[in-house]
Model the fold of this input.
Amino acid sequence: MLDNPRSPRVRAVAKLANRAARSETGLFLLEGPQAVSEALTFRPELVVELYATPTALERYTEIGDAAVAAGVDVEFVTEQVLETMADTVTPQGFIAVCHQFPTSIKKIFANEPKLIAILEEVRDPGNAGTIIRAADAAGADAVIFTGRSVDLYNPKVVRSSTGSIFHLPVAVGVTLTDVRERAKFAGMQILAADIKGEDLLEARNSGLLSEPTAWLFGNEARGLTEEDLAMADRSISVPIYGHAESMNLATAASVCLYESAFSHRA
Done:
């Protein structure tokens, strides 16, 4: 059992909370039973190391079974060691170290996608992770992070995705110009989510949302620039019928993605 929070091995895991260490090693941190379970179920080959407290493994026996089935050894650690490794204040008994696994943008568009989320300069990790989760739930084919967006493997992005990061392809580090060119070649329309755009309900009623669509979402504070908006075919706004000043980006993105999902299945 690992019981020394100052050991080099523990420190190496803890360093993965920092982007520099993630970039250098090509690894990232995974915390909590839900995320670890999803990794072992959907992408076990990515799991390099798996740590757990005895109490947590006793409570979540299915994770131990999944680790055995995947050929992944579970290393027992003390609560203190787990707290040192974790990015969160109150870790939930499990931590895994995984290989990063971005998908190439070429591969995404080669699969003839019908629904994609593009994140341009989305900086809040909680929003980014929640959009991945929403895209997964809506049956989207992929999510694309441009180079100006938050790091996909930021621990808060990973936690906010609640395991959806392992369910659908995610590309990173691309330019919006490249995404636009590939989307157009693949026959997809690009719809920019923008407060000054056309009403989403009208877009739905016109049949616009039944087409293969790449939704473009911008920065939480500033939205999309005029240059960004010019790359889209249309701009669409989510109507606010009450007195709210605005909608959270991830909430608005969820609405847009689901509207397309409904239209594709109508």
The mean pLDDT is 96.
